[in-house]
Amino acid sequence: MMKKYFASVAICMLLLAAPFVAAAQSAEKTAPQAVNDITGLYSFLHEGEFVQIEVNDGKVTGLVSHFKNEDPDKTEFVDQYFSEARYEGTKLTFRTKPSDGLWYEFSGDVERGSARSTGDEGYWLVRGVLVEHRVGADGKSTDKSHSLTLKSFPQDADPNDLRGVDKKE
Known about the structure:
single chain, alpha+beta, Lipocalin, 2 domains, 8 strands, 20% helix, globular, disordered C terminus
């Protein structure tokens, strides 16, 4: 009789626990996966400009490649390398080295985009704020900040293809 009682109690406990176990398993499936390798090229302010991000063993390096002048018809580019960068959890921050009195600071959150694979545009999105720092000829500094979403290019993208530049063989 005692065995039947314990068996009944055990069955009741399993039945009562089942919804909690199912909910926990469902939460595991729907919880966002930790963002892993975000290494690659990302869109920047104007078409043809990009951010290159490299993550190796927790260390972040990269650069911002942008038009030298405000006029995108002038195809002279400036590459500004990161002077410091950090990637912790889903938070990405970087600051570029100054060039001709201009440097950038960016802080944003990495998330999965709607693309199905890394071979598609927008697999990773980094939504944040870009601050553009300029020092004029008079020595005065101006800061301009705005929201920016860095959108990953297809993983096999070549920067020269993005700019329409022919590769030299």
